[in-house]
Design brief:
Elements (H helix, E strand, L loop, with lengths): L1 E15 L3 E8 L3 E7 L17 E8 L4 E13 L4 H17 L7 H13 L7 H14 L21 E5 L3 E4 L12 E4 H9 L5 H19 L6 H5 L5 H11 L2
Parallel strand pairs: 3-5
Antiparallel strand pairs: 1-2, 1-4, 2-3, 4-5, 6-7, 6-8
Length: about 250
């Protein structure tokens, strides 16, 4: 079977034999797939320089097995040369996608969310809002979307002034007496923060902190106990002072 001119991003690649590459690719129409790019490591390869993460591509491939063979690739947009914290954030998103996406399970809306997030990453400002929005959309597209608009107990709309106990895999329940600081079953979060995440608008820094705690807890249930490698990898690449700042922000 042959596939032609499919929109795609490379999530990961590594050497395969002496001259080829093994690619993990996220496509719009076919989800995550594995491909062999034969001869891609040769200096004369027509694909040299474009088979890399964050570059949107149009690719073609053939094969019926779990691992296809790349037959064509060309750039389909600008080269997103991510730097510093933006680069770290990009690889964080790639690692999360690799961990959570099943092969050949198409998620076109998630593909668009990923492309949008890449286009929003900046090296000179905080990328935390970009990551929180991407994580929210990721969970929704995988069928684990968060309840952000109503109390799951009495079905009432979220009250911005209330405090909620967000029970993972269920949703928020309003705390009758939050001032007592009794232990919560889930994640303690303000109503205004739930609404900010629902609206994907983070003008309030406190709402962004709440969203970070909630998204970290929600993702951990699906990522499992094995830690993400992104932090360890970039501890040796990003300058230490910048790394400490971004590790605290991203919260992967």
């Amino acid at each position: 079977m042959r596939y032609h001119q499919q929109h795609a991003f490379i999530l990961h690649h590594h050497g395969y034999s002496e001259t080829s590459l093994l690619l993990e690719v996220f496509t719009s129409a076919h989800g995550r797939i594995g491909l062999i790019a034969k001869g891609a490591r040769r200096p004369s390869s027509r694909w040299r320089g474009i088979l890399k993460p964050f570059q949107e591509l149009l690719i073609s491939w053939s094969g019926k097995s779990e691992l296809g063979v790349l037959t064509g690739a060309e750039a389909d947009g600008p080269d997103r040369a991510l730097e510093g914290p933006a680069l770290y954030c990009g690889f964080y998103m790639n690692e999360v996608l690799l961990r959570l996406l099943h092969r050949h399970d198409a998620h076109s809306a998630l593909f668009e969310a990923y492309a949008s997030a890449l286009g929003s990453l900046r090296h000179d400002i905080s990328n935390e809002p970009v990551l929180r929005i991407f994580e929210k959309r990721l969970l929704r597209e995988l069928g684990y979307g968060l309840v952000l608009d109503r109390d799951i107990g009495d079905k009432r709309p979220i009250d911005a002034d209330a405090i909620y106990d967000y029970v993972l895999d269920r949703g928020p329940v309003r705390l009758a007496h939050p001032e007592l600081n009794t232990p919560a079953e889930g994640i303690r979060v303000r109503g205004v923060s739930l609404l900010a995440l629902a609206q994907e608008s983070f003008s309030d820094p406190a709402a962004l902190r709440d969203a970070k705690a909630l998204m970290r807890a929600a993702l951990s249930r699906h990522l499992g106990e094995r830690p993400l490698h992104t932090r360890k990898l970039f501890r040796h690449v990003v300058p230490l002072n910048m790394m400490e700042l971004e590790v605290d922000k991203v919260g992967s």
